Amino acid sequence: MNDRRSEVIALIMAAGRGERAGLNGPKQYHPLCGKPVLAHAVDALAMTGLVDRMAVVIHVDDQAAYAQAIAGRVLAPAIIGGATRQQSVMNGLCALDAAEDSIVLIHDAARPFVPRAVIERLIGALDEADGAIPTLPVFDSLTENGRTVDRERLRRVQTPQAFRLGAILRAHHLAAGGATDDGSVARTAGLTVVEVEGDEALRKLTKLADVEWADRHLGSQMISRTGMGFDVHRFGDGDHLWLGGVKISHDRGLIGHSDADVALHALTDALLGAIGDGDIGTHFPPTDPQWRGASSDRFVEHACKLVKARGGVIDHVDVTLICEEPKIGPHRDAIRVRLAALLQLGASRISVKATTTERLGFTGRREGVAAQAVATLRLPENM
Ligand code: CTP
Ligand code: MG
Questions:
Q1: Fewer Cβ in 10 A, N or C end of the chain?
Q2: Ligand 1 neighbour 86 (Cβ under 6 A)
Q3: What is the pTM of this model?
Q4: Which CATH number fits domain 8-220: 3.30.497.10, 3.30.200.20, 3.90.550.10, 3.20.20.70?
Q5: Which residues neighbour ligand 2 (ion) by CB within 5 Å?
Q6: Ligand 2 center to residue 83 CA distance, Å?
């Protein structure tokens, strides 16, 4: 087994430009289900529970994108990379302030999914070798200049690749600049490198089709969740009210501790319901004076943040307003636009409906407004 007294450091390479993917910017900052590729890689490594420290090597132009992508995560300060991957690895290794015998896992940010079992195999293999790399067999037939190549002898090489810091640093100092893979740098320097079984999930995102695959792969690991919310506020004196984040002139207002926006309160509860995290009162107690007169936008935004923190995506929301007055029809589009902005969703994923209760009950007697909401989310299966 691995000598657990050695520190395990993940060094994540994210200084490339992603030219072959042809996205709007480097692929490591491209969102997969709302979360940047790099953040997926960082979180996956952290989730293994086998990594003590992580450092990311980034491009000098990407500092703002990087800060945004890793917000809320604990990482060593970013290291600025070089013109080639190998130069970036060198910069990263040189910047690590760690013991010679620390284990360093050199990983591509462009491989967002990292199975724990591969990390276990890599670390375990360092008991008998200077380096360990994950590989997979080739199943397609291969040709070279029209001649068939024996695929049995060939392997696809993935990352992370594991080494002792001192040894891989010396190997990189000996190497010429163009290596795309640290295992070959290590072998060239005479280190022993063993192969452990890789994993299809470690596929590198190189072309646009790989990014599309990653989206589908992630989607297949998400489960759908539905939450519902309901709220009522009573009419009182006033000349306007708030519904769905839109101010509507009216000869009466709605009474409440906050701005009494029933639609946003129902929506907040629907979002919290879908992630099973209490209700609006749990997060914003009505007894707390700081929420007096507060804009209910904040409640929705907070619920969205909680969804995001769990790696979730909102697929759709459906809000129904129940009242005789005011008439909702003239405001429906404005409410949809406002909800789209609050939830950062396309308007096609937002439904706003209204109904009366045929003059029956409290809404029929024009005593107040009720609202219902349903939110449909996808969350990672393991949440
Ligand atoms: N990388 C790096 N520094 C470089 C080049 C690449 O840190 N100078 C990183 C990339 O960010 C990526 C990994 O090395 O995570 C693998 O490289 P590759 O897939 O080639 O990514 P890019 O260089 O970004 O893409 P492309 O070659 O298509 O421009
Ligand atoms: Mg490249």
A1: N
A2: no
A3: 0.79
A4: 3.90.550.10
A5: 16
A6: 9
